[in-house]
Amino acid sequence: MSPRTVSSRVVLPPTDRNARRIKRSRVLSYVLVVLAAIVLSLRPELFGDPQTQPAHALLHAWRIVAGILLAVAALGVQVVVGVRWRTGLRRRAQDDAEDGSEPAGNRAPGDR
Q: How many Cβ atoms are within 10 Å of 17's Cβ, its own excluded?
């Protein structure tokens, strides 16, 4: 039997604080996506008759722009939280390396 190989990249589970932040960001993203879906699904007739209201075309265009912006904001929330979490992981790994102790997942296989 060959020995099991352990990946040199070990991703630690999030701390309680980061887990709460991730959960809140997911909820916020879901809310933004739902709002985007609602805005995009609005019928143009809700804004009035296009023949009697010249601003109807602008309202229709802004509906699409607002929906796309809300969807992009939902994606941005996830990216920002992910980047902050990864930065925190790197900071903790750097702090551990300065202490002289090396995390078990980052040691060479011969050192185990």
A: 9
